[in-house]
Amino acid sequence: SICRVRMHFSAHPFMVEVADEGRGLGQTRDGGYGLVGMRERAAGIGGRLEVVSTQGKGTTVFLFGPQ
To answer: What is the pLDDT of residues 27-56, one digit of tens each?
Structure first.
């Protein structure tokens, strides 16, 4: 699996994109709080977190800074 990390400083104060070409997020939940905690941290700085995942194609996580 390949992981890409990109940072953009144009449309928002900043945007961080982390993408992989792995298996994607499954439908089942394992009881973890990883994404919940990441969303809470993003909200804590006035930003937001978005996750896009396709089974068998990978996952991309976007962190948008405060507006």
So the answer is: 656 666 788 999 999 999 999 999 999 888
Q: How confident is the model at residue 11 (pLDDT cuts 50, 70, 90)?
A: low
Q: How far apart are CA 33 and CA 8, in angstroms?
A: 27
Measured between alpha carbons, how far is 61 from 36 in angstroms, rounded to an integer? 13
Pick from 60, 59, 26, 64: nearest CA to 45: 64
- In this structure, what DSSP letter does residue 9 have? -
| E strand or H helix at 42 | helix 34-44
Q: What is the pTM of this model?
A: 0.81
CATH class of 3-64: alpha beta
